[in-house]
Each structure stands twice: as C-alpha cells, then as structure tokens.
Design brief:
The protein is α+β, with helices and mostly antiparallel strands. The chain has four helices and ten strands; from the N terminus they run βαββββαββββααβ.
Length: 180
C-alpha cells in the first residue's frame, strides 16, 4: 500500500516514517507552507502522482478505477472532474483509495478517502495547523505532547468498539467517504 503525509506548517517530513515500513522511494513536495511526502506501493512501482503545468497535483494511494481507467490516467481525470462542492464525488470512484488533490493555483488542498474507509486517514487540527496521513505515527509525531485517550484505548482493547476512533488525544480518523 502506498502512503502519504500532508501538513501546512512544517517544511520537512522525516523519511523514516515511511522507510521503517518498507517504502524505499519517498518523494517530497514543498510548495510554500504545504508539505507532502509520499511513496508508491512497496512491491509495485505504480504511478501515484500527477502534476499539471500550473503546479496543481494529485496523489493517490490504493487501487482505484475511474471512468474505466486506472493509475496515471485515472488520477488525471479524477483531478479534472473533482468539484469542491460535490461531496458525493468519491462514490464515482471504484476501489479502495485515498487522495490528496492540491489546487495550488487556488491555494486549496482536499483530502478524501473511499466509501468504506478502507484506508485509515489520521488527522489533527490545532490552531490552524493541519496534519493528515495514512500513518498514525506521522500525525502523532506532529503533536507537541501526544497523550493516550485512556477511555478510547480501553474500549478498543477490551471490546473492539471504537475502531473508528483514535486512541490518541487530538488525533482523529477521517470518516469513510469524507472530503476535508
């Protein structure tokens, strides 16, 4: 599975977050205050990044099909067809996936995941700072003082309830079919 981390406050995202999970080729994009680090799937060298001449780009992880296309061609069409006000848009994409859609020319970034929430996307929002990642460790590392939420952790460990909740205070999980 591919991975990504996005934030709007740090110029550097440590590669170790990905290389310790087996990802060998970590790529980075740094455009002003927006920083992204991403990597392809471990065993498959797939195309999960597409950029336009104006600096806009899309990064996709997972396996997805859109308009009978996949990979590089699907990324391009997904970016072109995506509308900010269309939160039902992910329903038109088949598969399990997560995307970063960056419209740099408009200073907007969108992050979305599939209908089932197959890819867990973790995020934290604090004082205008945003960090979103497919790695909980990356989001935890962005916190000043990470702390366990003891009630959520106990619910998860004892009953498996709360799978849709993070057990770290300040870290949330993006809901299935959600766009932020």
């Amino acid at each position: 599975m591919g991975v990504f981390t996005y934030n709007n406050y740090a110029a550097n995202i440590p590669e170790e977050l990905f290389t310790t999970r087996g990802h060998r080729f970590v790529k980075k994009i740094n455009q002003g205050v927006h920083t992204v680090a991403y990597s392809n799937k471990i065993l498959v060298n797939n195309q999960n990044y597409y950029s336009f001449s104006n600096g806009d780009y899309i990064i996709g992880i997972g396996t997805y099909l859109y308009k009978h296309k996949f990979g590089y061609e699907a990324l391009q069409d997904i970016f072109i067809d995506f509308q900010e006000d269309s939160y039902s848009f992910p329903e038109k994409i088949y598969g399990h996936y997560a995307f970063i859609i960056a419209k740099v020319s408009q200073r907007k970034v969108y992050i979305l995941n599939d209908r089932a929430g197959t890819f867990r996307l973790y995020y934290t929002l604090s004082e205008g700072k945003v960090c979103v990642s497919s790695s909980m460790l990356a989001v935890i590392q962005s916190l000043t003082t990470p702390k366990f939420d003891q009630i959520r952790l106990a619910a998860f460990l004892c009953t498996e309830l709360g799978r849709e909740l993070s057990f770290v205070k300040g870290v949330e999980i993006l809901n299935p079919n959600q766009v932020i």
